[in-house]
Write a structure and sequence with these properties.
By secondary structure, the chain is α/β, with parallel strands linked by helices. It has eleven helices and twelve strands. The chain is globular, with a radius of gyration of 20 Å.
């Protein structure tokens, strides 16, 4: 057996740590709360402990590791190994996480934006295998992505390239969390679907979405569930979601001219409901030569993409 890879998916609410072989098989994985409110020192201590805990569960030692890869929310500087100031990790201002953990663990540590790491994971182990020009998009609470150009991750000058969710698709659109108006994320994320649904309910739309959201908090899954039950307003929202995805993906085809685009994240679990309308929009709006060479597919790694992508940084 070759050296084992350790992938750490660092999120605002949980840390997922897994041991992975060089073919992308997960040997053992664990999840623990991030406890982000305790600050970077405590969270880094929890990451370190999670590495030792998953090794113990697998009956392995730190010397069995090739290294540890970390997928983290941005902004960050992957080359310097520094997490700069992620909104969902309070107090993380220019934290040199790579230096700290490599010193504590005694192994190689690599850092990358979580969406970029996921793109590498899909490129090596999932829907992007064998594809030199590949784009991964995650559509969930927000929209992120990563771009592989001629077989290599394109990360830009300071690791912040391919912020796919923050290109503008309508200057007059809703305000995005980034502060801009009309971002792709503000129209097509899971959060956006829920927001459009809530606005409709407040404006008196006759819809079962309200009843499905028993605690009063509307989520995108309530919209899809209502649409499957024949709710007209929910069906309209799903059609709009597919259209907005199509618009954003048409732009991405123009930006990068990839051979394949893979879509992951929570919203991708509704693939059958979105695909036809999304592709109809893409064929109308994208440059014809770009559409002819690009296929749009569902990502393959599912909820494991964070750990697998982080581990893939070591390859």
């Amino acid at each position: 057996m070759g050296k084992i890879l350790c992938g750490v998916d660092l999120g605002g609410t949980k840390i997922s740590t897994g041991l992975v072989d060089e073919k992308g098989n997960i040997i053992k994985s664990i999840k623990i709360p991030t406890m982000a409110e305790k600050g970077p020192k405590e969270v880094i201590k929890r990451i370190e402990q999670s590495v030792y805990d998953v090794l113990k569960e697998a009956g392995l030692k730190i010397s069995d590791l090739k290294g540890v890869g970390i997928g983290s929310p941005g902004p960050l500087d992957a080359k310097k190994g520094v997490v700069i100031s992620p909104p969902n990790l309070p107090g993380w201002d220019n934290v040199p996480i790579v230096d700290i953990l490599s010193h504590k663990l005694g192994v190689e540590v690599k850092l990358e934006n979580d969406a970029n790491a996921a793109a590498i994971g899909e490129h090596l182990f999932g829907a992007g295998r064998g594809i030199d020009n590949f784009v991964y998009i995650t559509v969930s609470t927000g929209i992120g992505g990563g771009v592989i150009i001629q077989g290599k991750l394109y990360s830009g000058e300071n690791s912040n390239a391919a912020e796919i969710g923050h290109h503008t698709i309508n200057f007059n659109g809703p305000r995005c969390n980034c502060g801009n108006y009309g971002c792709f994320e503000a129209f097509a994320s899971g959060t956006a679907i829920a927001r459009f649904a809530q606005e409709g309910i407040q404006n008196g739309k006759d819809t079962m979405i309200r009843d499905l959201a028993k605690d009063g908090v509307v989520k995108s899954e309530h919209v899809f569930e209502a649409a499957k039950l024949g709710d007209e307003f929910a069906e309209e929202l799903v059609d709009n979601e597919a259209f907005y995805l199509g618009v954003g993906i048409s732009n991405i085809m123009a930006f990068y001219n990839p051979k394949r685009i893979a879509i992951g994240g929570g919203v991708s679990t509704q693939w059958e409901m979105l695909y036809d309308k999304m592709m109809e929009t893409i064929k109308k709006k994208a440059l014809k030569p770009n559409v002819e060479v690009c296929e749009v597919v569902k990502a393959e790694l599912g909820e494991n993409v964070g750990v697998l992508g982080a581990a893939a940084l070591l390859l």
